[in-house]
């Protein structure tokens, strides 16, 4: 088994009208849960880690852990840097063995975003690594950066950006946002923007960030067993499935895994008050993550049996 890039998986996803799940992890149980889910569904997945997740786990520990788990569980996987903030961070991940990186220049002006993305693309492509960039700004909080309002992606800019940078995939802003509180009123995604970008960049893989559905069952379980998560709301599953049948080839989910793991651990500890073996409660968290990943593959991504 090996760490692979996204080239083949995105091509198959685009042609097959489905998307690849990109799941954030920062520890062993999350990693195992995602890979066990992928194995059970014979599906491609991406493991992704943010800068803070890499700092938490340690860059070399993370890479070696993903390689070893991919081998032991028996599933090839892409290891991706999520929201790389600058060239130095991206370079350190490429040098450490990541097979895919994101340079997130979405908070810069257009020209600076083009410049830093091109710099990353040149470095990455020489080393066989693929690059995702972002154009437009998602509302909400991502790592240390936050925005109150969406700045939807401009299709004209998207075409120019892709041509000038040579990037392999592009994250766009069409109304999703990071975290558990995505919509104050009705959920709405700008499918007209996605459609126009798809028409103007045929065959080019689009990425959707902030795409957790914020599963209400997990929220309810968290709250039932001592949590306090009020007003959480995610992207409706039918909208995500529609996006994955279009040019969206990668769908990012972190919040749903965090909620499922926390709910399972809270429940386990509440129901087993004398238990103090971390393998028991973290194992419950791992199983919950596997269940979420399998359900996403079935209901959101449509990627079952994407591995030949
Ligand atoms: O897009 C943000 C991801 O959910 C990562 O979050 O920086 O807390 O690891 P994090
Ligand atoms: P969620 O917060 O909706 O899970 O999005 C995660 C994400 O986009 C990571 O890059
Ligand atoms: Zn994101």
From TrEMBL:
Xref: InterPro entries: Aldolase_TIM, Class_II_FBP_aldolase, FBA_II, Fruc_bis_ald_class-2
CC cofactor note: Binds 2 Zn(2+) ions per subunit. One is catalytic and the other provides a structural contribution.
Lineage: Bacteria, Bacillati, Bacillota, Clostridia, Peptostreptococcales
Binding site for Zn(2+) 2: 104, 134
Keywords: Lyase, Metal-binding, Zinc
Gene for this chain: fba
Full protein name: Fructose-1,6-bisphosphate aldolase, class II
GO molecular function: fructose-bisphosphate aldolase activity; zinc ion binding
E.C. designation(s): 4.1.2.13
């Amino acid at each position: 088994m090996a760490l692979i890039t996204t080239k083949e998986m995105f091509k198959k996803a685009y042609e097959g009208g489905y998307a690849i799940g990109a799941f954030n992890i920062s520890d062993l149980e999350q990693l195992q849960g995602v890979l066990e889910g992928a194995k059970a569904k014979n599906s491609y997945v991406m493991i992704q880690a943010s800068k803070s997740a890499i700092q938490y786990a340690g860059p070399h520990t993370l890479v070696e852990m993903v390689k070893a788990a991919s081998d032991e569980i028996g599933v090839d996987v892409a290891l991706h840097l999520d929201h790389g903030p600058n060239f130095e961070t991206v370079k350190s991940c490429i040098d450490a063995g990541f097979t895919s990186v994101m340079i997130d220049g979405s908070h810069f002006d257009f020209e600076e975003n083009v410049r830093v993305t091109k710099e990353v693309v040149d470095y990455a492509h020489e080393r066989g690594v693929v690059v995702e960039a972002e154009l437009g700004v998602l509302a909400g909080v991502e790592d240390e950066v936050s925005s109150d309002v969406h700045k939807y992606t401009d299709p004209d800019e998207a075409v120019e950006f892709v041509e000038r940078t040579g990037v392999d995939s592009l994250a766009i802003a069409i109304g999703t946002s990071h975290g558990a509180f995505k919509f104050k009123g009705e959920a709405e995604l700008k499918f007209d923007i996605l459609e126009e970008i798809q028409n103007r960049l045929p065959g080019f893989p689009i990425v959707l960030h902030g795409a957790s559905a914020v599963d209400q069952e997990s929220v309810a379980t968290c709250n039932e067993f001592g949590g306090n998560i009020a007003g959480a709301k995610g992207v409706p599953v039918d909208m995500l499935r529609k996006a994955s049948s279009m040019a969206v080839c990668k769908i990012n989910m972190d919040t749903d895994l965090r909620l499922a793991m926390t709910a399972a651990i809270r429940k386990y500890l509440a129901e087993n008050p004398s238990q103090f073996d971390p393998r028991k409660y973290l194992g419950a968290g791992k199983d919950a993550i596997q269940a979420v990943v399998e359900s996403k593959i079935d209901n959101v991504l449509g990627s079952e049996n994407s591995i030949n």
